[in-house]
Amino acid sequence: MTARRIGILGGTFDPIHCGHIDAARAAEEALGLTRLFLITSNVPPHRAAPVASSYHRFAMVALVVSNRPTWFASDIELRSAAPSYTSTTLQRFHGEGYAPAELFFLIGADAFAEIETWRDYPQILDLAQFAVVSRPGLPVAELRHRLPSLADRIISIDAPTADVSATDVRQRIAAGESIAGLVPPAVRQHIERHGLYTTMSGRLHGED
Ligand code: ATP
Ligand code: MG
């Protein structure tokens, strides 16, 4: 049996975009991942509520994994009413028989910069291997410099990823601008067909 090397990328995915996909692909290649779970978060404790519903956010992730046999859309965090904590999620993977050494928690450098505020820090660093992916404008080297005590506890993945954030995507839509190239075509089509992120609350509500 080949060794299991499981990537986990959590996010609000409001919506999932090319930066997420580039980060996941870079990690897949750098770490030799055998599977990747994209975990759509419930309302994260430290952030404003998402704009699109969990159903739409998950649906867009499902579209992204549909032609990638080793990628999976996980609803593990959406199934519980409580806010998502990464430590709880990682412990649930352990409960399913995965060892911390088999789990690679992928995280962008901007998100990792706040790790000290996370629930169960610093023990959380032992629940999986943390693989920090550079984000345009924030190379992992800078982060190592900023958090020197953590430098030898993380794996760095310095790869170019699309310079896009979900906030940009939402703002462009609200401003009537194109999001071509920022999200995969299937995601763009889903957003447009359902009227997500327009100033209206959505096509269904905007019908009357
Ligand atoms: P928002 O603008 O709403 O915060 P976002 O684009 O940052 O959205 P999230 O769902 O918050 O997306 O991000 C999930 C994870 O993906 C985080 O670890 C984040 O750092 C990482 N990530 C997001 N965009 C990129 C990118 N362009 N390159 C590398 N990592 C990214
Ligand atoms: Mg973010």
The radius of gyration is 17 Å
CATH class call: Alpha Beta
Beta-strand percentage?
5-15%
* Ligand kinds: adenosine-5'-triphosphate, magnesium ion
Q: In which range does the helix fraction lie?
A: 25-40%
Low-confidence stretches: none
Distance between the termini: 57 Å
Taken in chain order, the helices and strands follow as EHEHEHEHEHEHH
Classification by helices and strands? alpha/beta
The fourth-level CATH homologous superfamily is: HUPs
Task: Walk me through this protein's architecture.
The protein has one domain: HUPs (Rossmann fold), CATH 3.40.50.620. It is 32% helix and 15% strand. It contains 7 helices and 6 strands. It has a 6-stranded parallel beta sheet with strand order 3-2-1-4-5-6, with helices on both faces. β2, α2 and β3 form a beta-alpha-beta unit. The chain starts with 5 loop residues before the first strand and ends in a 14-residue tail after the last helix. The model has no long low-confidence stretch (mean pLDDT 92). It binds adenosine-5'-triphosphate and magnesium ion. The site of adenosine-5'-triphosphate has 19 residues, from α1, β4, α4 and α6.
What are the SSEs and their pairings?
Blueprint lengths: L5 E6 L6 H14 L3 E6 L13 H12 L5 E4 L11 H10 L7 E6 H4 L16 E5 L6 H7 L7 E4 L8 H9 L10 H10 L14
Parallel strand pairs: 1-2, 1-4, 2-3, 4-5, 5-6
Helix pairs in contact: 2-7
The structure holds adenosine-5'-triphosphate (ATP) and magnesium ion (MG).
